[in-house]
Amino acid sequence: MLRRRTGLSILIMAAILAVIIGGLVFYKVMQFRSFAGMKFKMPPIAVTSMKLGEQEWQPTLASVGTVQAVQGVTVSTDLPGIVEKITFDSGQQVKLGDPLVKLDTKQEEAQLNSGLARLQLAKSNLDRQQGLLQKRVSSQSDFDAAQAEFRQAEAAVAETKATIERKIIRAPFTGVLGIRQVNLGQYLQSGNAVVPLQSLDPIYVNFWLPQQRLQDLQPGGDVKVLADGLPGETFTGRITSVNAVVDEATRNVMVQATLENPGRKLRPGMFVNADVMLPMKEKVLAVPATAINYAPYGDSVFVIERMKDADGHAYDGVRQQVVKLGASQGDQVAVVSGLKPGEEVVTSGGFKLAPNAAIERNNTQQPANSTAPTPVDS
What is the distance between the alpha carbons of residues 128 and 140, in angstroms, rounded to a whole number? Predict the structure, then answer.
């Protein structure tokens, strides 16, 4: 009897458990069916945007140039000798004719004293012969010989003075000295370097441009120069020369601009970015560089339009538009074709988008969009 009751209880418990499991399975099946009938929508993606309008740009011709001094030499010795005196410091500004180095001239000074004595004796002989000739005591040939001897002595003195002067090395023009390359007591051969000297204000910038732009390169044209290492500094000048010869290898022509260089911040040998400002301004459609999606198959932007979903509900979505890009200025890029004035484009957040994606505008903070940016960390 006990065994029958135990078996019956097990059957009842198994039946109850089967009912519970069946109910759960039925509930989940119905739940999945209800989910299958629902349509999910992606939430709108937050982006920044702007409406396009025509801007007036001054076109430029960009190039990389090299700074060159208007005058620049390495001052060197004319005659050999031992350095007796140095009268400059490295980096000093000097004027035309300032003495830089004096070589030992003891031998030349002794020769000068000897020459002066011979000159004085020759002068006395000449005066004496002139008096005798007037009294007809001496002949004309004696007077001519005395006069020739005097002139030889005078020339010898002048030569010695010139040699002494040539052993004083002077600045050939006004400028800034470089690093000294000589020391006291050093023996210098003729032509040995003493110190570099550069004239830094004004200064030249040489750069190359394609031959196709020769008609745009006229003396007097404005040039703007920016240099790495001088953030926020803009140097302006004018074209002063266009080379008469085009390089056969590159078909480029060298252009030289002259710039004011206050503070001597531009130094010879520096690389700079040179922009020739063309006189004719043009109207362009420009977008921030952040709006461009660069790709091998073509550059594109996302244009915001009113669209409808499958149920006919309107929403703000995006259309991917392939564009042709032109020149750039600062943070902006000119769009040559593909867009029209008045269209609204996505300026940031485009990397999250796909065609027909729903968007939500959030223009509380816009990306940089200046033609002349001044980065804080530049």
Answer: 13
Same domain, 264 and 308: no
pTM: 0.60
Q: How far is CA 67 from the centre of its chain?
A: 9
204: exposed, middle or buried (C-beta count within 10 Å: 0-12, 13-18, 19+)?
Answer: buried
Integer Cα distance of 59 and 276 in angstroms: 9
Measured between alpha carbons, how far is 251 from 150 in angstroms, rounded to an integer?
65
- Encode pLDDT of 259-293 as tens digits: 988 888 888 888 888 888 887 777 878 888 888 89
Can you list the alpha helix ranges (DSSP code H) found in the chain? 2-37, 106-134, 140-166
Enclosing domain of residue 315:
45-57+282-361
Q: Residue 343 maps to which CATH number?
A: 2.40.420.20
90 assigned to some structural domain: no
Number of separate domains in the chain: 3
Q: Is residue 85 part of a domain?
A: no
